[in-house]
Amino acid sequence: GARRPAPGGPTLRARTGRDTAAGAAPPTTAGAPVTGYGFQWRYSGDPDWNDVARSPSQTSYSLTAADGSKAVEARVRAANRAGNSAWSSTATLAAASLRRFTGARHSASDFAIAIDGRATPYGIWSDGTTAWVSDSQNDRLWANTLATGARDTNKEIGLPPIDGYHVSNTGIWSDGTTIWVADNRVDRVRAYTLATGARDTTKEFSIAVSGGIRPSALWSDGTTLWVTDGSANATAARAFTLATGARDSSKDLTQPTGPSGSCAGIWSDGSTYWATLTGGDSEGVYAFSMSTGARDSSQDIDLGAGNTTPRGIWSDGETMWVVDSNKTVYAYR
Questions:
Q1: Which end of the chain has the lower number of beta carbons within 10 A, N or C?
Q2: How far apart are CA 144 and CA 329, in angstroms?
Q3: Spatial separation of the C-alpha atoms in residues 72 and 90, rounded to whole Å
């Protein structure tokens, strides 16, 4: 059979995430029927291409590029019974298109934390439908429907006193089954079943370290849990194995350069982490490399009017929600 000519270059488009691009293979051309496509990508300027493991018949692919500061290139080739075609022309997606958040306000996604009386809203986590917000003054995790901001009392979790003391809850994070709560009073991560609110002591652990720690914000990739120190004048976060609570200093996050302040919130897409800094040079949401701790000011989020006392943060990859102590959760894209 006739070997296929090279197909046209793929179409690249930025999706909802800073570092997610989609490549689509072109339709079939003359010759024997297409039996599959190959797909490669690289950062502009890199000499080597990365092969993508995918079904040969797949005509689109979503890739996650770790470095949002570099343009992404991609190419495709077709295959039939005679073999592979030559590679297509190269398509390029500019680095500016790969930014995770522009920092633009998205007030349509703001919501108020409907709490009567005094409150200190702090941490936030969501399953994409419900957003839970911690409140150390009321020993409670408030629940709001993320799309509308409406309060959902059926999903709220009370945090009864432990050993006669209130749970001074700050940062929270969940895997969808268990929700972990940083207890600022005793250097410990508490655990509760998300669906029922029942405490699960089997998943709790101490985060006491040499020199002490004042646990503030939590974030996890499902394996490691990072805990920031609210008393430290830096965004450094200590790492613990989520399943066992064992310290894993090899995964600690450091911040060698950048603005000062204690970290009240943290969220990551796996390559960049965003930290809410308070009480330092300038309160705001700043971006750092997960691997090196280097500041990435191009990914910083400038906070809007009213959002002057930021605390916890959470994102679905498209929108970033920032809790403010004024009982409002502000949204950015």
A1: N
A2: 11
A3: 10
